[in-house]
């Protein structure tokens, strides 16, 4: 499993994935090209979406992530990562997203850093509410029929899934509740890919 490690909550995602893996696999931090093609799952963490996108383009890792997704490798994208994998960003001109998930995303939809918050959300498939941490968070404001909405806050979607893509507007790595990381691990287990063939 690879964690894109240019910026953001990289170590927190590594620790969260290692907890749910329980020694079943390894986690590698991705800072250069050539690593993603050997990964059976990829995490795009939060951070600053413009900065992350520039590093993805500069290193060629963005093309590798796109190719991995097209090959069926599961991807979990959180907060800024959700912005990066989206098809469209509201009023965005600074960079082009990877266009992997058929969603339209609004950046900073819930306000500035100062207006960060936690909220109990109802998630499809979870038996109890999930306490989500929102930090200068985006929101999904439009989506196609290909996209399954897993959780909402009012009219906005904050957790979405499209085939092997899991997009979260919040930071699951900042809570002890590992259900989203476990969901992602299950997505990887469901896919039988020989990474050496890509």
Q: Largest beta sheet, briefly?
A: 7 strands, mixed
Order of helices and strands: EHEEHHEHEEEEEEEEH
Low-confidence stretches: 194-198
* Shape field: globular
Description:
Belongs to the glutaminase PdxT/SNO family. Keywords: Glutamine amidotransferase, Hydrolase, Lyase, Pyridoxal phosphate. Catalyzes the hydrolysis of glutamine to glutamate and ammonia as part of the biosynthesis of pyridoxal 5'-phosphate. The resulting ammonia molecule is channeled to the active site of PdxS. It is a single chain. The chain has 198 residues and is an alpha/beta fold. The protein has a single domain, classed as Rossmann fold. The chain is built from five helices and twelve strands. The protein is globular. The relative contact order is 0.18.
How would you describe this structure in keywords?
disordered C terminus, 198 residues, glutamine amidotransferase, 5 helices, 28% strand, 7-stranded mixed beta sheet, Class_I_gatase-like, glutaminase activity, alpha/beta, Rossmann fold, EC 4.3.3.6, EC 3.5.1.2
Short description:
The chain is an alpha/beta fold and 198 residues long. It contains five helices and twelve strands.
Q: Mind sketching the topology for me?
A:
Blueprint: E1 2-4, H1 10-21, E2 28-30, E3 42-44, H2 49-59, H3 61-70, E4 75-78, H4 80-85, E5 86-89, E6 101-106, E7 117-121, E8 130-134, E9 139-143, E10 148-153, E11 156-162, E12 165-168, H5 179-190
Parallel strand pairs: 1-2, 1-3, 3-4, 4-12, 5-6
Antiparallel strand pairs: 6-9, 7-8, 10-11, 11-12
Binding site for L-glutamine: 47-49, 107, 135-136
Active site: 79, 171, 173
GO molecular function: glutaminase activity; pyridoxal 5'-phosphate synthase (glutamine hydrolysing) activity
């Amino acid at each position: 499993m690879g964690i894109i490690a240019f910026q953001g909550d990289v170590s927190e995602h590594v620790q969260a994935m290692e907890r749910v893996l329980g020694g079943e696999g390894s986690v590698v931090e991705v800072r250069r090209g050539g690593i993603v093609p050997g990964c059976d799952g990829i995490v795009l963490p939060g951070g600053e979406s413009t900065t992350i996108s520039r590093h993805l383009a500069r290193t060629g890792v963005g093309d590798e992530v796109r190719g991995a997704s097209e090959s069926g490798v599961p991807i979990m994208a959180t907060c800024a990562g959700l912005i990066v994998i989206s098809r469209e960003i509201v009023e965005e001109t600074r960079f082009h997203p990877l266009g992997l998930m058929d969603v339209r995303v609004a950046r900073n939809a819930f306000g500035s850093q100062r207006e960060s918050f936690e909220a109990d959300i109802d998630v499809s498939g979870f038996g109890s509410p999930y306490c989500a941490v929102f930090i200068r968070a985006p929101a999904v404001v439009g989506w196609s029929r290909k996209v399954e909405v897993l959780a909402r806050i009012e009219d906005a979607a904050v957790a979405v899934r499209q085939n092997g893509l899991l997009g979260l507007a919040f930071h699951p790595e900042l809570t002890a509740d590992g259900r989203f990381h476990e969901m992602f691990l299950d997505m990887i287990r469901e896919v039988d890919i020989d990474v050496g063939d890509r």
